[in-house]
Each structure stands twice: as structure tokens, then as C-alpha cells.
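Ticket #4471: structure export looks truncated?
Reporter: QA, pipeline team
Priority: medium

Steps to reproduce: submit the single chain below to the structure queue and open the exported record.
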Amino acid sequence: MSDPEGQLGRIEAVLSPVVQEHGLSLVDAEWRREGRRWVLRLFVDKPGGVTIADCQRLSHEAGDVLDVSGLLQEAYDLEVSSPGLDRELRKDREFAWAIGKELRCWVREPVGGRTEFCGRLVAVTAGEVIVEDAQGETSMLPRHLVTKARLVPVSAGRRAQQGP
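Actual output as written to the record:
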């Protein structure tokens, strides 16, 4: 497969209605070769969190839809899971999904004298990641400086905000 990203876009277009019918949102998807086989990973979520049963139902139906579509000629493994409590955010879609959630973010050059930020993700634009800390102070981080952003599990986020 010479164009995995293009193929991923076609896969997402075929599966989006199925994901939505299950009351889920697609947080991220990966289509890549691992060893001799291709792997399609779907990371889904819903308000209140996704269950194992949600993942199983979607996996069965998504597999059937992909088989009928004839889109994938390669042998592949399909994995459906939740994004995870401490998921790393990389793509625009992941950042948009994480608005309102707690995260820890690192930048390559100091912003306001700091290189690490922890708080609630308030907004994301093409140029900025906006984080509000426990004291209500907002930091506007230039997107091109963000080297890593990771969700903070709620219980850990509350401890981290309370300080030592």
C-alpha cells in the first residue's frame, strides 16, 4: 500500500456512519503495516466512557462493513478500543476531542518562563493550545512549540493541581 494516509481517509469515510450509529465518536484511527500484516486501529469514545461491549459491537459491525465495501484487499487485524486515560494527543482531531479535559503539555522553548503546563484544555486553534491551570490562569501556547501533550487521569489531575 503506497498511500496509507489516503487509505485511512477512505476507511474513515466508510466507517464514520457505523461509528455514529453506535453513539460513538472517532477519536483517532491508525492504518499501518506491522510485520507481515496491516493493522487498523480505531480509538472511540462517548460521553461517560466507552465499554468493552461497545468496542466489541463496533468491531463486529465495522469488520462486516469493511468486508462488504471491498476497500481493503490486504490481510489486516482490526482493533477497537478507548483512547485511554493518559492518551497522548497528536492530531488536530484528538486535541478537539480533548477540549475540557485535563492535560499536561510540554513546549520546546519557555513560554512565560515555563516549559511544562498542566490544566484544563480550554481551546485549540491552528496556532495555539490554550490551557487553564487550577488557579484559573490561562496560558496560550504556540502550537509549533508543543512537543508533547498527554491527558491526565482525573484523579491524578486533581492531586497534581492541589500541589505538594
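Status: closed, not a bug. The export was complete when the record was re-opened. Leaving a note from the reviewer for reference: The longest helix spans residues 4-21.
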